[in-house]
Automatic annotation (TrEMBL):
This is Glycerol-3-phosphate dehydrogenase [NAD(P)+]. GO terms for cellular component: cytosol. The keyword Coiled coil does not apply. The lineage of its organism: Bacteria, Bacillati, Chloroflexota, Tepidiformia, Tepidiformales. InterPro entries: 6-PGluconate_DH-like_C_sf (IPR008927), 6PGD_dom2 (IPR013328), G3P_DH_NAD-dep (IPR006168), G3P_DH_NAD-dep_C (IPR006109), G3P_DH_NAD-dep_N (IPR011128), NAD(P)-bd_dom_sf (IPR036291). Residues 5-158 form the Glycerol-3-phosphate dehydrogenase NAD-dependent N-terminal domain. It is found in: Cytoplasm. HAMAP family: NAD_Glyc3P_dehydrog. Keywords: Cytoplasm, Lipid biosynthesis, Lipid metabolism, NAD, NADP, Nucleotide-binding, Oxidoreductase, Phospholipid biosynthesis, Phospholipid metabolism. PROSITE patterns: NAD_G3PDH.
Length: 335
C-alpha cells in the first residue's frame, strides 16, 4: 500500500494524517520529540481537536528525523507546520530530496518573503516535484468528517492527480491545479483579510461590513497575485474566495479571532497568547506589503492590518481610514 509522511503534529497535520489513513494509506507522522510522539500516541491525535482518538493503527508516530528504512517506502510528504517554523521543520525531518513534497502551510517566509515551495527549492527539493495544498480547510470540521474541499497545486498535473487520490477520503474532496504560485499566495493573503474581517466583527459592524471587507480584500489579493504571475481563476476558486469566505465568517478561524481580540483592545502578543496557536496573518501582513511595493500594487486593507499589528493605529482608527478613502469605480482584477 502507498505510504506518506506528514511533518508536524499541528491540528492540520494530525487531520491530514487521519485523511491519508482514511484513504487507505500508511502514514508516518513526524513530530518534534519522543515526548510529543508519546503524547500524540496516548491521545490518538490532539486533545485540542476535541474529537477523541482519530488516528488508527496505520498512522505511525515518530520523532524527527525520518529513518532511512521509513524513507525508502514513501510516495510523498506533506509539511503541515506554521510558515515561521517551516524551514527548520523540513531540515529536521530529513526527507529525501527526491521525494515529492507538498506544503500545507498558509504563509510567507518573514525574512525572505518566499513562498513555502520556494523555501523547499532553496533546500534542494526538485521544483517539479513540490506543491501546495490549500482551500477552506478548518481542521476542527474536517476531522469530524464534515464535507470539505481543497485544491492541490503541482507543476505536473499527473503528480497532482496522485495527491488527489492519496488525500480524497469520505466527504473530503481534492481538486487539482497547476497554479502553485496562485494557490500559495491566495492561502497566505486571505489570512490578513480575515484579521480585518474579525476586527469588523469585534466592533459590531455586522455581516454587510464583513462582506465588503471580504470582497475588497479579494480584489487586492488578486491584484497582487496577477502582478506576480498567478492566474485570476485561482483567486476565484477554493484557494481564493473559498478559503477567504471560511476564514472571514467562521468563529473557528484563528485569524478572525485575532482581529476580534484586537478590536476588543488586546495587544497582538496578548491576542496570540489567548488563541494559543499560530496566527499566520499577523506574520504575512508585512511580507505582503513588501511584495506589493516591489510589484507596484496597492493593498489598502493589508496596510491597515499591518499598521494595527505594528502599533501605529488602533482598530477604530484603521477602520475610519478605510471608510475615508476616496470614492472610486468598482474594478475587479482580470486577465
Amino acid at each position: 500500500m502507498p505510504a506518506y509522511a506528514v511533518v508536524g503534529a499541528t491540528s492540520w497535520g494530525v487531520t491530514l494524517a487521519a485523511l491519508l489513513e482514511r484513504a487507505g494509506n500508511d502514514v508516518i507522522l513526524l513530530v518534534r520529540s519522543e515526548l510529543e510522539a508519546h503524547a500524540v500516541r496516548a491521545a490518538g491525535g490532539l486533545e485540542r481537536l476535541g474529537t477523541g482518538p482519530v488516528l488508527g493503527p496505520r498512522v505511525h508516530i515518530h520523532p524527527m528525523p525520518l529513518t532511512a528504512n521509513h524513507a525508502a517506502g514513501l510516495s510523498g510528504a506533506l509539511v503541515a507546520v506554521p510558515s515561521h517554523a517551516f524551514r527548520a521543520a523540513v531540515q529536521a525531518a530529513g526527507l529525501p530530496r527526491s521525494l515529492p513534497v507538498v506544503s500545507a502551510a498558509k504563509g510567507l517566509d518573514l525574512e525572505t518573503s518566499s513562498r513555502m515551495t520556494e523555501v523547499l527549492h532553496a533546500l534542494g527539493y526538485d521544483p517539479d516535484r513540490t506543491g501546495a495544498l490549500s482551500g477552506p480547510n478548518l481542521a476542527h470540521e474536517i476531522i469530524r468528517g464534515l464535507p470539505a474541499a481543497a485544491v492541490i497545486a503541482t507543476p505536473d498535473l499527473e503528480l497532482g492527480r496522485a495527491w488527489q487520490t492519496a488525500l480524497s477520503a469520505g466527504a473530503f474532496r481534492v481538486y487539482a491545479s497547476t497554479d502553485v504560485l496562485g494557490v500559495e499566495l491566495a492561502g497566505a493573503l486571505k489570512n490578513v483579510i480575515a484579521i480585518a474581517a474579525g476586527a469588523a466583527w469585534g466592533l459590531g459592524f455586522g455581516a454587510n461590513a464583513v462582506a465588503a471587507i471580504m470582497t475588497r480584500g479579494l480584489a487586492e489579493m488578486t491584484r497582487l497575485g496577477l502582478a506576480l504571475g498567478a492566474e485570476v481563476a485561482t483567486f476565484n476558486g477554493l484557494a481564493g474566495v473559498g478559503d477567504l469566505a471560511a476564514t472571514c465568517f467562521s468563529p473557528l478561524s484563528r485569524n478572525r479571532r485575532f482581529g476580534e481580540l484586537l478590536a476588543a483592545g488586546r495587544t497582538p502578543a496578548d491576542a496570540v497568547d489567548e488563541i494559543g496557536e499560530t496566527v499566520e496573518g499577523a506574520h504575512t501582513a508585512p511580507v505582503s506589503l513588501r511584495l506589493a511595493a516591489a510589484a507596484g500594487v496597492e493593498l489598502p486593507i493589508t496596510a491597515e492590518v499591518a499598521a494595527v499589528i505594528g502599533g501605529e493605529r488602533t482598530v477604530p482608527e484603521a477602520m475610519l481610514r478605510l471608510l475615508g478613502r476616496p470614492l472610486a469605480r468598482e474594478e475587479l482584477p482580470r486577465r
